[in-house]
Specification:
binds adenosine-5'-diphosphate, 5 strands, alpha/beta
Length: 163
């Protein structure tokens, strides 16, 4: 039984993330999308909101579950019995950091390996940061995120402006 985790901030989840989830769910038996409780990054959405958005968007893929985690990724992987970490590579700029993380994790825990999927061409430019940047100016984000999330994202910025 191949169990994998796909960790990230998902603040918010984009079509790029969903593409990664669909593709990796075909390769492994069970996939846990793991939302990092990264208070340091001052996320737009709470951990609970990010988990619930991901649950809604992946509810039709039977071998995908969504959880949140804190602390070292490798400890979390071991705690759920995962032997694979899935990461996405968009551009060369992702590579250096990802290589370092993957190598570090293998030194700490040789039983867990990192599997990289290259981005689908149509989402190569896409990141949560880009979505937030465009949304903060009231721009069109319909090419970046599922339509059910558009209003939730705009709403965050309207609330920020009112405060
Ligand atoms: P992190 O803060 O860990 O980078 P993200 O939510 O930004 O979290 O990304 C989670 C994972 O998804 C990372 O491996 C990232 O490279 C990958 N990813 C993000 N956007 C895309 C995309 N458009 N195409 C492919 N992979 C992506």
């Amino acid at each position: 039984m191949k169990k994998a985790i796909y960790p990230g901030s998902f603040d918010p989840v984009t079509f790029g993330h969903l593409d990664m989830i669909e593709r990796s769910a075909k390769v492994v038996d069970q996939l846990i999308v793991a939302v990092l409780r990264n208070n340091a990054k001052n996320p737009l959405f709470s951990t609970e909101e990010r988990v619930s958005m991901l649950e809604e968007m992946t509810k039709n893929i039977p071998n995908v579950a969504v959880q949140s985690f804190d602390g070292l990724l490798i400890d979390y992987a071991k705690s759920v019995g995962a032997t694979i970490i899935i990461r996405g590579l968009r551009a060369v700029t992702d590579f250096e950091y990802e290589l370092q993380m993957a190598q570090t994790n293998r030194i700490v825990e040789p039983g867990v390996d990192t599997l990289f999927l290259t981005t689908s061409l149509e989402y190569a430019y896409l990141s949560s940061t880009i979505v937030k940047e465009v949304a903060s100016y009231g721009g069109d984000i319909s090419h970046f995120v599922p339509k059910q999330l558009i209003e939730l994202i705009y709403h965050k910025y309207r609330k920020e402006i009112k405060q």
